[in-house]
Specification:
With about 375 residues, the protein is of the alpha/beta class. Helix content is about 40%, strand content about 15%. The chain folds into two domains: about 280 residues, Alpha-Beta Barrel (TIM Barrel), CATH 3.20.20.70; about 80 residues, Non-ribosomal Peptide Synthetase Peptidyl Carrier Protein, Chain A (Orthogonal Bundle), CATH 1.10.1200.
């Protein structure tokens, strides 16, 4: 499933040394403790939480506090924060550090979702250079010895790129690494990621690691990105949907000895076992068998993409309400069915289509924040996904 290549130099993010230069990208509703634990069973890397809203964290929202709680097996503990207010972001970082809740903190500046960008948040925020600088500087100071990183996009659209300015600002602010999703907000997840932008950022930022994100569907893609761009590691999002064992492939291709878990044969039996393990971990995470079995339903199409699993069987898995029912359905599959090759490869998750980014009124007229924009930004602290 992948080509084993000579291992790149070890990746260090502050004091954290990674056995494989691989990071799991935060995905809302996906990268909870259950999925992170499952991915970790297959290979080494840094496994980041779902995006956490800074205001909800500072206010100790019950759901948020649960989302930042790691399983005892998870180390290092990594949490991504989304915030638009410098003081609130600083307070959220300080809470995580003072209460020893994280070993790594990431700041999200990549969200392309319209209801975030129209209020100046996410991928729209780095356009305002002083606001971006204030958030990152105060967060890095509050983080202290805990490494703080940033994840961002190329910019708002092709005419309003921000990644080189933001990269230099973040480097000067003292971040431990910078990750670039090589698309603009306007592109959403469509088309092809611009790996040349990752190479340009690597040339501009010289004192901290630069990580590349976008269109990594296999270990070969990751190795090619690192070779073509010179980036220090990769961030993997949609490519691991329904394929948590991708981290084993990545560790074998990019990591040191012992960084990968069991060999992957990708027969239908192997995939079914991974699906069952995921469901089991979700049940444990939610402490509710019914809820865990409902949550696994959205993963059915991803796991069995390309495999000889009929529509009736997929429908039954997508309505199963207990682990016993899932076991009964999985037992009907042809466990020996081989890996289907190209039919199981390629893009996963919704790509969307290019669209004009939603922005606050007159947002692009200046790179400074005026009073009206300050009010809009304050309203951008909502729970959403992105990156």
């Amino acid at each position: 499933m992948s080509t084993v290549l000579s291992a790149p130099p070890p990746l260090r993010i502050g004091p954290i040394a990674l056995d494989a230069p691989v990071v799991l990208a935060p995905m809302a509703g996906i990268t909870n403790t259950a999925f992170r634990r499952l991915c970790r069973e297959y290979g080494a890397g840094l496994y980041v939480s779902e995006m956490i809203t800074t205001r909800a964290l500072v206010e100790r929202n019950a759901t948020t506090m649960r989302l930042i709680t790691h399983h005892e097996s998870e180390t290092p503990r990594s949490i991504q924060l989304y915030g638009v207010d410098p003081a609130t972001t600083e307070a959220a970082v300080r809470l995580l550090v003072d209460e020893d809740r994280a070993d790594h903190i990431d700041l999200n500046f990549g969200c392309p979702v319209p209801k975030v960008t129209r209020k100046g948040g996410g991928a729209a925020l780095p356009w305002k250079l002083d606001l971006f600088r204030d958030i990152v500087t105060r967060a890095a100071r509050a983080a202290g010895d805990v490494p703080l990183t940033v994840k961002m996009r190329k910019g708002i659209d092709a005419d309003h790129l921000t990644f080189l300015d933001a990269g230099r600002i973040a480097e000067d602010a003292g971040v431990a690494a910078i990750a670039l999703h090589a698309r603009t907000a306007a592109e959403f997840y469509s088309g092809h990621a611009d790996w040349d932008a990752i190479a340009a950022l690597k040339q501009a930022v010289t004192s901290v690691p630069v990580l590349g994100n976008g269109d990594i569907w296999s270990a070969d893609d990751a190795a090619r990105m690192m070779a073509e761009t010179g980036c220090d590691g990769v961030v993997v999002g949609r490519g691991c949907l329904g394929r948590p064992w991708l981290f084993g492939d990545l560790a074998r291709a990019l990591g040191g000895p012992g960084s990968a878990g069991p060999e992957v044969d990708a027969t239908l039996g192997f995939v079914a076992a991974a699906f069952r393990r995921h469901a089991e971990l979700l049940v444990e995470f939610f402490d509710d068998e019914g809820r865990g079995c409902r949550d696994i339903r959205k993963h059915v199409a991803w796991y069995f993409k390309g495999y000889p699993v009929g529509g009736d069987t997929r429908a039954r898995l997508a309505t199963a309400s207990s682990l016993a029912e899932i076991d009964e359905i999985l037992a009907t599959l042809d466990a020996a069915a081989p890996y289907p090759g190209a039919a199981a490869e390629g893009q996963r998750g919704r790509a969307g289509t290019p669209k004009r980014p939603a922005l606050p009124d007159r947002w692009l007229e200046s790179r400074d924040v005026d009073a009206a924009e300050s009010s809009a930004i304050a309203a951008a602290e909502i729970e959403n996904s992105g990156g």
